[in-house]
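Lab meeting minutes (informal)
Scribe: AK
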Amino acid sequence: MREAMPRMMMLSLVLLLVFHVSASWAASASVYDNFLQCLNTNTNPSSTQLSNIIYAENNPSYSSVLRAYIRNSRFNTTSTPKPVLIVTPSASSHVQALVVCAKQLAIQLRIRSGGHDYEGLSYWSDQTFIVLDMFNLRTVTVDIEDSSVWVQAGATLGELYYRISEKSKVHGFPAGVCPTVGIGGHISGGGYGNMLRKFGLAVDNVLDAQIVDAKGRLLDRQAMGEDLFWAIKGGGGGSFGVIVAYKLKLVSVPETVTVFQAARTLEENATDVVSRWQEVAPTTDDGLFMRLLLQPGSDTVKATIMAEFLGNADQLVSLLGKQFPELGLKKDDCKEMSWIESVLWWANYDNGTSPDVLLDRNPDHANFLKRKSDYVQTPISKNRLELVWKKMIEIGKIGLVFNPYGGMMSRIPASATPFPHRAGNLFKVQYSVSWGEAGAEAEKNYTRDTRRLFRFMTPFVSKNPRSAFLNYRDLDIGVNKFGNRSYEQGKVYGLKYFNDNFERLVKVKTAVDPANFFRNEQSIPRLPTLNSDPPHPILHLDAKDGSSSKLSMGKVKLVLALLVYLFISF
């Protein structure tokens, strides 16, 4: 009898878990059915079978579709909240219907184009939510005669660059260096790249756009108006609607560009090189971009300059021989290549790699990572650099990346787009750490050390506000709970990301999305006169409303393990 009691208790536990799993799947199926019915009602008949673009938790492909565009493994654990549905539209009409149906069923949306949000806000939420995954909307249409390209939000930068190079060897686009980044998030958040000193940001080269607004309308620039068009060029598209596509202005690039990489340790005059870099990199020829990477070792710091020049090697060596003799650059250190080959070089592909690799949307491995950002407006003295080296060596692990401004960035007004970090900024700082080991303890250690270095850098960076870059998403600088203090909470991070442009963004948000349907932990809040947000975007879970509970594969595995245990025991 005594031996049977533990087994009976175990059996009861298993039955409860099985009941929970069954109820969860049944509820998920109910949401699926309701959502599919709504989509069919709000979508014109087409060749697309709508059931093929919706994935519920009990769909065998659900996990693979969800994980395909998770770029930060911190948000790919069994405890990470999962979407009740994933919807993968293949037409803009699907996006329109999805917005209408999500509002009708009172479920929050998370919009994912490439999955590179550093804090994973495009694919997790602490509320019941749907992931709107844009990867099927990735058409790129290049018009060389017009020097423009229409590109859908689900395309990657690699696909954009590849399609441009198919049509021309003397055209390019000034955006980021990571080919798997999605267009929608990259451009709506600013779009930083290695030609910004010559041509500005990606958002400085946007001609038109298509967005689905909170009413489910598909709007172009003329229909949406200049205020909303301004807002989605650096203010974060996820606050205002669903970006479907951008029309971009192509830029002229020479047939030959030059790249080089040069590394120095502290024993090899790295301090002198970094000190001089601060003077030269933001003021040199607009066609030269010199990124500086700083990585601590056991007793030194390694400084590596990665650079691209829109010209030939002779011109570059002559230029830096005069401006940057501390570097000692020689022609043998340089590589001449086409612009599309330089895209591959920045992405760390071997020399001679075919550009076809840019069509590969999936990285080999997604690490655990944490990023933060800062802006430096006054050169850091050599004495202070020595203090920075000491702290970096003490902490270990955390790297710094300095990205120079100047050139065109200083000539575009801070109010031209929501991105405000223009004249007066010498360079942007990225705090960077990635790790491979899973677990809460590792995450705690790495994120804590990143914050330690960030605090140490306080005297050397911008103040009032201490500015940050939206596309280097960092929840440490503020989170919105969307209660009675939503505006005040949003202002904390909003002023850091957008400076004086924050208030205009709030006004646009209030006008185009007064119910605050499009929102996340760092979205633009509405004007404070609207008080707290309505509760309707939060879908509370119970057995009657047909909504799905957050069933995790961990629970399923636990049930299966217990069933095996009972089978063996009995």
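Next up, CB showed the second protein from the same session:
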Amino acid sequence: MEKNPCDQIKHGEEEKHLTTKLGGLKTLAFVISTETFEKVASFGLHANMILYLINEYHMSNAKGANVLFLWSAISNFMPILGAFLSDSFLGRFRVIALGTFVSLLGMSLLWLTAALPQATPPQCNGLATESCASPKAAQLALLFSSLALMSTGAGGIRPCALAFGADQLYNPSNPENKRVLQSFFNWYYASVGLSLMVSITVIVYIQDAAGWVIGFGVPAGLMFLSTVMFLLGSPLYIKLMPDKSLFTSFAQVMVAAWQNKHLALPPMESDPGIWYYHKGSKLIAPTQKLRFLNKACMIGNPEKDIDMDGRAINPWNLCTVKQVEELKALIKVLPIWSSGIMIAVSISQHSFQVLQARVMDRHLIPGGLKIPAGSFGVFAMITLTIWVATYDQIIVPLLSKFTKRSRGFSLKERMGIGLAISCVAMAVAAMVESKRRATAIRQGLGDEPHGMVHMSAMWLVPQYSLIGLAEGLNAIGQIEFYYSQFPKSMASIGVALFALGMAVGNLVSSLIVGTVDKLTSKGGKQSWVSNNLNMGHYDYYYWILTILSVINVFYYLICCWDFGSSDNKNKIVWDEEEGTEDELELELGDRAKGVASPIVFTH
């Protein structure tokens, strides 16, 4: 039986057969609720976890922070793997379904660590952490398994949820489709922002007020609802088959360049006929930078390399010029990408700030609402949200009057200003901690690490707000910079690069904390990151981060100088024509993969 053409949409180079009864607005409640419940559940656990590790597992401050740094690193790396599996093998539906189930399993295990007395060491009864019983190997195995499962599950949900929602609405034959998709994106981002606010405030408050059993049970229950809601909508979803991943394309270029290493590169002014490109492509010859990669698109033997239709017989032995230039574009931005690692280190310092807030006066006003120590991160999120909401509508028009540019600051300037502000944030953090420590010692709390310091925790708000502003400038600037340098088909790689930078930043944070703890505790001295905040020197630790951040700013300036101008005349003309239906599909697909989602990918 012949298929109705109206029941098909084109996706890439293959036809996806869909029935008109699938997808549509009726599926959005399932998709958005799935993402909302997952965000509230997972991010609510991050905010307060340092206190759980210290109080229940008797970890030192440094070790607890290192566990969280590694957990965050894995959580930021796994979405890259999830996106690869989704694009190349399993498709978005299967990856999200597996992700929700694995996340639920991880949160259930974490709840068991709080619910079962045998899962944690005996209580300390007010003793110093050093005097408490250490956790057994089996207890740590259960804890770490729960964290690993949650990271793995998040890797399936986060890179695919928005794109999966867009799949349900994409209908190029509908003239209102772009408006419908834009409305969906707005609702999606609004739900994500609200869920993050709720997770950092309500979930943390429940943990503080009702204890860990209920505090972990609520996120597990929400994750159960997320899983059920997503699976209930299964009969209604459009489930597209996976396409070829860009990661596969990059691997093919590298393999082909190695396979063809015996070929001699032609002179710069050579016949374009020796290069392999698809018919109609504007890229008919590779650029001269990174010339060793040009061998990947060099036709060595037309009879063995090309079939009767003009296609490469083995894509792992011969790639197109476009594939080669895509990999070069990625390599070209790597130095500037590496400059973003240090700001990721600054962003990830939440754990120590929770410990500081815990021993400070956390009343919003004297005698008023008492903010949980783990909820102060909301000030960074509020600042980031305000910046994102006001930048295009208010700040850009004001800046354009002075810069004479329609976009205000250039992307490189935004990234650089973000890095500079992160330096200020770390300097403020060092000065505030110096003041807190001096106040505690004046009160005679040198040997009482849990004693309440007569200093308002509102002193922590400026550093959180500065970090939120730095993130709004640098993080969004990074993603937009990658978007400006890559073809539209590579836009999701920009988000992947940013997530990878956050992961590396967390690993570097762990390395710095471990190194500082080891070096400063030699000879029986008190570690700068001691369990006793009043006897340690966390202010010195923050000054180290400040110095490293300042050095990183100069490194960034060198990278910008080496990168050169981003003017249009220096850009490669990719195979994309403005205003075409394919471009619209790519643009909306890129939005669906998170290009315009700073909140989703920075926390």
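CB comment: Residues 246-319 form one domain.
No objections, moving on.
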